[in-house]
Amino acid sequence: MFNFVENNNPWINRNFGVNANVQFNLAGTNNVALAGGLQDSDSATASLQEFIPEVWGASIQDYMEKNLVFAKLATDQSAMVAGGGDRIHLPRHTELTASDTYGGGTVAVETLIDSNLAFAKSTDAEDAYTLDINQAIHSAISITDVAKVQSSYDVMNLYTSKLGYALAKKIDAFVAIKLLEHVGYNYANGTDDGAGAGNTIELCSGSHDSYDITTTGVATMIEKVYTNDSNMDDWTMVLVPKCYGSLFKLADFAKYEGVGSGFGSQGASQVPFITGYAGKLAGVNVVVTSNFQQYNAGGAVQAQSATPIGNFSSNSITDESELLCGYLIHKDALHIAYASGLKARVQSDYHLPSLSTRFVADSVYGGIVTGTGTAGNQKVFALVSPAS
Predict the structure, then answer these.
(1) Which of 76, 85, 119, 365 places its Cα 20 to 30 Å from the Cα of 65?
(2) pLDDT tens, 197-231?
(3) What would the mean pLDDT of 331-347 be, rounded to a whole number?
(4) The predicted structure's pLDDT at residue 50
(5) Are 369 and 196 in contact (CB under 8 A)?
(6) For residue 139, what are the β-bridge partners?
(7) From the DSSP assignment, how many helices (H) and strands (E) are in the chain?
(8) Taking a C-beta distance cutoff of 8 angstroms, is the pair 183, 194 a contact?
(9) Is the dihedral of CA 261, 273, 277, 90 positive or negative?
(10) Whether the model pTM is above 0.85
(11) What is the pLDDT, as a whole number, of residue 81?
């Protein structure tokens, strides 16, 4: 019986092994390509069979950060929630004062201190700023052949740049409307006034609807900066395009060459990595953008506008009617934080009915504008033209 099986079955030899003369060719052919990134299994294409979230996530985050304007000016507090959590408390300190240790005058420094030192207490009135990470946004897309996209740097950039820009635009809109609410009266057609309402600088003058910057307006800005116990380098002007464009109509201001690549005595390495950076005005960094947000006149509908409006001079105004030329923002005014691992997360799955790879880029974050209307703690000013 044994010999019969052996002699009549070519697949078995005496050692019950696979016959050396019979082999299956399982090598890749390079001729098969299925939509959705499913390709042949040889080494040349194996690395492209699966969606690579690390590659896409890094690229999307890069494009997102490059397109931020207002959010780029914020201090990133994400490290404070790296281990989890969705709320950050930022201390709200009043100005501290220094006292004479030995009584002042001609008292020798080696004299023993005969009274207790006075310690300023952190009162309930000082409280804290609360930054809640409560914003969740996403951008989704479906790609028929993700392998081909990943194999082409240019094609992949097309998708990641659009996703990154979509996230950046949404995040910037969040920060921009927070700024408007901070310096506005009765915003969103309501009765609420921002913590910095009344912080205004008439940078533009002439008619009520003027966007023209004047030397008088710049002088007023400089005065506000130093009255607020700060330096010019501590601030950034974010201007609407019309306002910035007015500079080139005036003989009082010079146009620097090589915009974005070094100004005056500063080298290119000194230029902040901020989208829209356009040089300096009176020692203050200038950024130009159309990413401003507003509430529609007499309503509560939020929208992007390159010519935003609001109520900045008085809480008696109920209909947004004053032009906003821009903001003057202190370096410590804005704070933003992203949930751990969710600054620009990418997730994907393969969708068989459409033979495509679907993926979502999302971000979870929160932000806050600090400062008040009290001199010395004013961190955001609305740059305006005359109220009437």
Answers:
(1) 85
(2) 999 999 998 777 899 998 899 999 999 999 888 99
(3) 93
(4) 55
(5) yes
(6) 361
(7) 6, 18
(8) yes
(9) negative
(10) no
(11) 92
